[in-house]
Design a protein that fits this description.
107 residues, globular, 9% strand, mainly alpha
């Protein structure tokens, strides 16, 4: 429900995720799964996390459609903005693994 979050919080979260171009489109109805690129959809996932502040976050290959610098920035944003959340991630990317406090390797 879009009434849960203030416009300011929504706009700030979109900016943090690099989606400020979507702000003027928020009142439009569209099939966003088709309208947005995969990279934008993954960035929108970060917006949802920032707004909803879940206690638990489960991610598989988080932000794998994004360039490595953006992946690292998003993972750091999650760490900074959601310090009370527990993040469990599945990835084979060493750069992302390095951001976790504990790593379990499954062979």
């Amino acid at each position: 429900n879009s009434d849960q979050f203030s416009d300011r919080k929504l706009h700030d979260s979109l900016r943090l995720a690099g989606l400020k171009d979507l702000i003027p489109l928020l009142d439009q109805t569209d099939d966003w799964e088709k309208a947005l690129l995969r990279e934008q959809q993954q960035s929108l996932g970060l917006v949802r996390l920032l707004l909803q502040k879940p206690q638990w976050i489960f991610m598989q290959e988080p932000f794998d459609s994004l360039d490595p610098d953006t992946q690292m920035r998003f993972m750091r944003l999650i760490d900074q903005k959601l310090p009370k959340s527990t993040l469990i991630g599945l990835t084979n990317q060493p750069s992302i693994q390095a951001l976790f406090s504990r790593v379990i390797n499954l062979l």
